[in-house]
Amino acid sequence: MLETHTLSGPSLAQLANLYVDSIKVGKMGSGKSLELFPTILTALAACEALSYGKGELSGEEYKKQLINSLCSSRWDPQCVIHLTTMFRDVPLSSDELKFLVEKTLRMFTKLDLQEIPPLVYQLLLLSAKGSKKQVLDGIISYFKEQDVRQEEEQNCGEDMDLEVQSIPQDQLRHVEGTVILHIVFAIRLDHELGREFLKSFKTSYADMCPFSVALLLSVARIQRYEEQVFDLLKGAVIKSYKDEHLQQGSKFLQDLLPRHCSVAHMILDTVKNSVFGWDHVTQGLVQLGFFLMDTFGPKPGPFGKTTEGPVGTTRTPTQQACKLGGQVLLYGFKIHEPIRGEILEQVLNRLVTKTASPVSHYLDLFSDIVVSAPMILLESSSKVIETFDHLSCLPLATVQGLLKAVQPLLKVSISLKDALILVLRKAMFSSQLDGRKSAVAGFLLLLKNFKVLGSLASSQCSQAVSSSQVQVDVHSRYNSAANEAFCLEILSSLRRCLGQQADVRLMLYEGFYDVLRRNSQLASSIMQTLLSHLTRYYEPEQDLLPPVKLEPCITAHGDQVYLQEPLAHLVSCTVQCLLWLQNTQQSANHSADDSDDDEEEGEGYQSHLQTMLESVTRRMVKSELEDFELDKSAEFSMGSSVGVKNNIYAVLVMGVYEVLIEYNFIKAKYNKSHFEELIGLFNCYNKLSEILKEKSGKVRAPSHKTPRSLLSMGFASTLITVLFKDNSQSREEALSVLRSNAEFVRYALSVVVQKIQQLEESGQTDGPDGQSAEKTFRFLCDMTSVLMWRYTNIPSAVEEAGRKDKRCSLSQLCLEGLLRIFTTCQLRYPDKMAQLLSTMDVAEDEAEQEDATEMNYFYIRQFQRALFTKLSGGEEDFNSREAQLLVSILSVLSRQLNPSSKQFVQMITWTVKICKETSFEDSAFSKGMLSLLFNLHVLYKSPVGLLLELCQDIHSQLGDIDEDVEVEKQNIFAIINMKTASNAAVFVLSQVEKILDEVEWLIAQKKSQAASDKLNCGEDTQSAGQQDPVEKAVTLQLGTLVTALNELVQTSLQPGNCTITLLRVLSRTYSILATLVKYYIQVCTSQHSALPARFEKLVKLSGSHLTPQCYAFITYVQSGETAEGDEKKKKRKNDVNTAASAKLLRETKATPNLIFSIEQYEKYLITLSKKSKVNLMQYMKLSTSRDFRINATTLEAALQEQDHSQETTETQNGEGTQEPKKKKRKV
Hints:
Structural class: mainly alpha
Oligomer: single chain
C-alpha cells in the first residue's frame, strides 16, 4: 500500500482494471483487498497520460472512466457494504458521488434486511462528501415502501385468512430502530446533515411516513433541533387536519384530488411501532403529546369563561389536534412502562397548576388512563394522593372531573379513599367558597358509590365502572357495617353544610336525590335531615298564610341582600326523594309483603311529609301576593336592596309553586278536583311570573331572564304527553281542566323548550335524572314524538285565528323545541339520530320506514310540506319566524343524508325550486333559504354557477351604477327582490370567499407539487397539449367568479358594509390571480411549456372586463360617500359621528388595497409575458390616475354653477357695503 505511488501508470491501470473486473463478476470475497483500491485510484489520477483504447487519456479522466464503469456494472449484494466503505476514501466529483449514492440506494432492495443498518452507516459516513439530502431521502423512502408493503400484507392476510409476510414485522421494526440510531448519531456529528433533514419536511408534509415521524422525534432529543422539530410536527398535524376539513366540506375538492395522507395516522402508527424497543422515540412521543394538548387545548374566554366546543364533538382541526395529543399519551401509557410515571405526573401537574384555563382535555385523558389501566395506576397512587392535597384550591369543575375519574380506584384502594376523606374534611372548613363546594361534591360522590348492603340492586342504582380490570367486590374489602358507618359519618359531615351559603346548600340538594337512588339504605337518614331542615321554614299553624317563612331565607351584609336558603330547591329535593321512595316501595310491595321496623319508621316521616305538603298546597292556593310581602306596584329593580329582596322572594315563591304543581300532578291520579287545585297553584305562579316580566320590561338594565324551571325533565315530558296525546276516556274529564287553560299549556311547552336548551348548552339538566345521558335521551325521544304530533295535527292557521295577543304560537314553540332536539341530538348523541326519529309515531299511517335514510327523508318531507303550506298563503299571513325555524330544521336533518343518495339530490332540487318560486320580501327567510341551498350544493358539486346566476339577479334588481344604463330584466331566483337583494349580496360575497379559499388551496397544492417534482426529477410529467385537471378546474372556477364579480361591481349597491365587503373580495380575487400567475412563472421557468389557452382567456376576462369596472366602482363608492357626507352636513354640522369615521377608515383601507392588488397582478403578468413569450398585457387597459383625478363633466357643471351663484350675489349686494362680501369669501 505504501509503495503504490512508485508503480508505473500502465501497471496501476492494469491493477485497477483487475479490481473492476473481479467486482463485476462478484469475486471480492471478504473485501479486505479493496482497501488497496482507493490508493491505486488516487495514484492513477496523478498520472499524466495513459493509453485507453487507441488513444490516450489523462490519469484523472481514466479514473472517471473506471468509476463510471464500476457504478454501471452489476454489483454482488455481498460486496455492496465493502464497496461503499471503499468509496469513502476515493476522491469523487459531485456527479460521481450522486451516481454512486443512487446506485447504492437501488441496491437496498436486493440486500438482506440485517445488512441495511451497516450499509446505512457507511452511506452516512459517505454523505460527509455531499449528497446529504439524496442519502436521507433514499433511506426514508426505502422504509416508507417497506411499511406500505407490510400494511398491505397484513390487510391481505386479514382478508384471506393467510399469513403472507415477506419480512417479519418485529425484524423490520428492530432494523428501523437501529437505522434511526445511526442517523441521529450522524446528525449529532454533522449539523449540515440535520439542517438538510429538517429542510425536506418544511415545504410539505406529504412525504412524511411513520418512519420519518419516528426519526424526527429521535432528532428532537438533540437540544438544538428540539424546538424546530416540534414546531414542524405541530404545523404538519394542523395543516393535515385543515386540509382534511376543507376536502370533507367540498365535493369539488373531493372529486379533484385524492384524500390526503393523514399525519395523525402516521403519528399513531409510530406509537404502535415504538413497542419494538424504540426507547429513543418514546421520550419524543411524550413531549409531542403534551405539546399538542397544550397548544391546541381549549383556551380561556372573556371573564374566565371557557371557549370549549361541546363535549360530544371534535369538529375543528384544533380540537382534533388536541385529541390526537391525548391519544398519543394514552397509547404511550399503555405500552411503555418507563414513561408511565412521567405522563401521570405531568397530567396531574397540569390539573393543579392550570387553574386559569380549562383543563377538560387533561381530565378526559386522566379518566381514560384510569379506565384503561387502573391496576397500573394504583402503583402510582402516591402521585394521586399528592394531587388530592390541592383539591380545596382547584376550581369546582376540575375537582368534580378529577373525583369522577378517580372513583373506580377508590373502590379498590383503602389508602386512596382514606386520603381523600381527610382532604375533603379539611376542605369542608375552607375559607374559600369553592373549597367547601368541592368538599360537598366529593362527599356526595363517595355516598353514591359506596353502597350499603341491602340497598336496592336495581339497574338505576348500579354504578357503571367501564373498566374490565376493576372487578372487585366492594364488600370483600369493606363489609356492609363498615360501609354503613362510613356513609353515616359522611352524612353527618354534610349536615353541617345546611348552615352554609346558598351555593353550598344548592349542591347538597341537587346531589341528595342521586345518593338516595344509588344507596336506598340511607333513605331514613337523608329524609330525616331534609324533614328537620324543612320544618324551620314551615308555618305549623294551619290557619296562617303563607305556609312558608321567607324571612329566614335571606341575609343582609351592609346594604346588600343575599339569598341564604334556596327554599324552592329544598322543597324540590324533599319532594323528589319522597316520590322516589314511595315509588320503589310500591314496586317492592308488589313483589314481597314484608314489613319491619325500618319500614314503619319510613312510614312515619313519609306521612308527616305528606301532611306537610298537602297543608302547604292548600294554603299556597289561598295565599295572595301581599301575604308574601309582594305587590303589583312593588319595586323589582336589581339596583336597590328592596328590589333585590322582592326579586329573591318572587323567585323562591314561583319555585315552590312549580314543585307543588309537579307533586300534586303525580299525587292527583287524574282526579278532576285535584287538577282544579293544581290550576289554582298555576294561576298564582302565573300572576307572579307576569308581574316579573312586566317589571323587567320597563327597566333598561340587562334583560331579566326567566328563572330556570324547577320541574324535572321527566315530568315536563309526561306533562306535554298527557296534554296533547292522552286519549283514554277515563282521564278525559280531568285532563280537560288542564287543557282548557291555554296559559298552562303554553307554560308546559315553554318549560320543555327551556329544558332542551339547557341540555344542548351543558349536556345535562337540573333535577332528578338530569345527569343520566341514557334517561335524558329517552325523555328527548318522548318529547320529539309529542311535539311532532302536536305540530302536524293541529294546523297553525286554526290556532292563529283564535289568538289575540302577539306572542308566538304554540306551533312555533313546538318547532323551536324540535329544532333544539335535533341540534342537541347531533351534538350530544351523534349516533342516535336514527333512534330518535324512529320513536316519532307520525310514520304510523305510512309504511314502516326501516332504512335510516328513508326514515330521515320521510321527516324531511313532512317539514317541506309544512313550509310549502306556509309559502302558499299570502304574504300578509306569512309567519317569518316559523318559516325560519322550518328552514333550520331542514338544514339540520339534511346533514344526516348521504350526499351520494337520491334523497340528497331530491332535497337540492326542492330547495332550488323554492328559491326560484318564492318572492316574499323577507330578508331573514331568504338568507336562511340561500344558506340551506349553498350548504347542500357544496356537497353535491361546486356552487360557482349558482353564484353567477344570483349575481345577475342582484344586478337586475338593484340596477346599474351608471344610471343611464338599463339592466336586462331577469329573475331566475324569485327569492332575490328589491327588499332582499342587498342582504343577498353580502351573503353571496361570503360564499365567493369560500370558493376563493378552495382555489387558493388548490394553487398552493400545485405549487408544492411543482417544487417537489423539480427537486426529484426536473422533467415535465405532463403530456404535451393536455392541461392538468387541477389547473383546468382552478382556471374555470376563477373565470366564473370573475364574471360573477363583474356583475356585482356594476350593481348600484348601498354604500356601507356591502361595498366594503365587495372591495375586500375583489382585492382578494386579484391576489389569488397574482398567485396563479406566479405559479405559471414557476412552471415556465422549470418546464418551458406553453401557457394553456384557458388561462389566457381568464387573463383577458379579468383585464378587459373586470379591471375597468373596478375603477368605475371605486369612483361610484367615493362619490356615494361624498353625497352621503353632504347630506349629513346639512342635517347636523358639528356632530362628530365616531361610527361614521370608523366606517370611513375601513373604506379608505379597502380602496388602496384593491388598487395595490390589481397592480401587483399586472406586474406579475409582465414577468410571465417575458417568460412565456406571449403578450398577456394586450388585454390590460391603462389604469386611471388616482392621485389627481379630474372628471371633466363634473368640473364643467361645478364651474357653471359657481358662475351662476356669483352673478346672483352681485345683483343682491350691489348697493350694500363690501363687508358682507368679505365674510362670504371667508365662509
